[in-house]
């Protein structure tokens, strides 16, 4: 099929399939950990507010630690930094599992989940490898970025389903345990594929990505978009639970990711230049009203699932556009740090969205909770429009 030709060319590059396989294995748990933690904690402690607060704390800690980890990766290489950082994160996940299993005090849950903050940005490291392999090939890099976003969505499509199944079919801690094993195994495979690893520069540019022109507005948009994702996840889990269908929650979340995955692949195969960010965020804002309306007017889980599928179709184009702009604005030699700053913004937003979504569900209703992602998307739209009138229209940046 002609639509697949850019991807055939992409994976024809030497070593591309090998490092991608390891990265996908390590990335899959990213869609498992938060769902596993919410199901595990809410199921044993009986509080979605506590579960949302714990996951929010872990994500907030990651938002602080991740840029430092990425900076070390840029300075010393992926293999030397990512694997030890992963080991620390895995130990944090196992500590959380034991604290829940042994009915330890609530504060231990926060401390354990915060220890997972050293988890490397697997998607950012993969994108850095593509940027190294495809230096000077803007069209190929756009296809690679679109694939990476589709891979993100695939992991967030399969991850919640796998997590919900493991926690329901075996024991509440099973999702966290399997996720920790996959993360470590995948990172070992990825970091040992040294042929495609970007070389370490003898001198790292002094200019920090955070100070690069156009980056602060992009990171603000990432923060707001993260709140969309975090609140949607917690609210959907609670909505399904309220209807007595907790085991179906993972599948419902997977549909949203499936819509995004399909849109991401089409967006990359089309080979078009990145669209304006404001248009993508506007589409996301409009489509996110569908789950809210489905929940408020029908209270039907299948209809909410269908609405999330449609709403998800705006996610990948928005994220591909955002990550393309981040790459363009990041100083050469600090790409891991620049990409991680974008992910940090997303994680910070997810933390806020998770906490706010959990509070809304606990004190109001799951239906009311679907208003949170709509509001967060509207904020992202306002920020992108404000940025479009300033640095987003920088004539030095190709669109």
List the helices and strands and how they pair.
Elements: H1 5-10, H2 16-27, H3 33-45, H4 48-76, H5 78-101, H6 106-114, H7 122-133, H8 138-169, H9 174-191, H10 215-242, H11 249-269, H12 277-287, H13 289-297, H14 301-312, H15 315-329, H16 335-363, H17 366-369, H18 371-388
Please provide a written account of the structure.
Helices cover 76% and strands 0% of the residues. The chain has 399 residues and is mostly helical. The chain has a single domain (2-200, 210-393), classed as MFS general substrate transporter like domains (Growth Hormone, Chain: A). Helix 12 runs antiparallel to helix 15 (315-329). It is globular and about 55 Å long. The model is unreliable at 269-274 and 391-399 (pLDDT under 50).
Quick tags:
399 residues; mainly alpha; Growth Hormone, Chain: A
Low-confidence stretches: 269-274, 391-399
CATH architecture: Up-down Bundle
- CATH class annotation: Mainly Alpha
Structural class: mainly alpha
Helix content: over 70%
Q: What characterizes the major β-sheet? A: none
| Secondary-structure element string | HHHHHHHHHHHHHHHHHH
User: N-to-C terminal Cα separation, in Å?
Assistant: 27 Å
By DSSP, the count of extended strands is: 0
Transmembrane segments: 20-41, 48-69, 81-100, 217-239, 251-270, 277-297, 303-326, 338-361, 367-386
InterPro entries: MFS, MFS_trans_sf
Protein name: Major facilitator superfamily (MFS) profile domain-containing protein
Keywords: Membrane, Transmembrane, Transmembrane helix
């Amino acid at each position: 099929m002609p639509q697949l030709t850019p991807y055939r060319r992409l994976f024809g590059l030497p070593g591309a399939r090998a490092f991608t396989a390891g990265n996908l294995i390590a990335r899959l748990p990213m869609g498992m950990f938060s769902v596993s933690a919410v199901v595990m904690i809410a199921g044993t402690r009986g509080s979605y507010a506590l579960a949302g607060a714990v996951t929010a704390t872990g994500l907030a800690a990651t938002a602080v630690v991740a840029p430092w980890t990425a900076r070390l990766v840029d300075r010393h290489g992926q293999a030397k930094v990512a694997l030890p950082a992963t080991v620390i994160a895995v130990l944090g996940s196992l500590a959380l599992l034991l604290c829940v299993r042994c009915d330890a005090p609530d504060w231990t849950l926060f401390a354990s989940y915060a220890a997972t903050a050293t988890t490397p940005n697997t998607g950012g490291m993969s994108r850095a490898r593509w940027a190294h392999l495809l230096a000077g090939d803007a069209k190929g890099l756009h296809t690679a970025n679109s694939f990476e976003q589709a891979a993100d969505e695939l992991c967030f499509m399969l991850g919640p389903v796998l997590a919900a199944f493991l926690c329901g079919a075996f024991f509440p801690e099973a999702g966290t345990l399997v996720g920790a094993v996959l993360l470590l195994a995948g990172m070992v495979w990825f970091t040992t594929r040294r042929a495609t690893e970007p070389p370490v520069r003898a001198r790292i540019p002094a200019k920090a990505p955070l100070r690069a022109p156009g980056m602060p507005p992009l990171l603000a948009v990432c923060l707001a978009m993260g709140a969309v994702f975090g609140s949607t996840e917690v609210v959907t889990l609670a909505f399904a639970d309220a209807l007595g269908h907790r085991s179906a929650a993972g599948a419902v979340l997977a549909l949203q990711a499936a819509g995004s995955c399909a849109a991401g692949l089409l967006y990359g195969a089309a080979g078009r230049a990145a669209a304006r960010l404001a248009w993508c965020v506007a589409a996301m804002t409009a489509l996110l009203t569908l789950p809210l309306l489905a929940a408020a007017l029908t209270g039907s889980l299948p209809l909410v699932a269908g609405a999330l599928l449609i709403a998800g179709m705006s996610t990948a184009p928005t994220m591909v556009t955002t990550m393309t702009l981040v790459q363009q604005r990041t100083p050469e030699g600090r790409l891991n740090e620049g990409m991680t700053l974008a992910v940090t913004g997303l994680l910070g937003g997810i933390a806020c969205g998770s906490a706010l979504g959990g509070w809304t569900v606990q004190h109001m209703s799951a239906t009311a909770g679907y208003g949170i992602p709509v509001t967060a998307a509207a904020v992202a739209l306002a920020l992108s429009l404000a940025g479009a009138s300033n640095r987003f229209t920088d004539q030095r940046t190709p669109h």
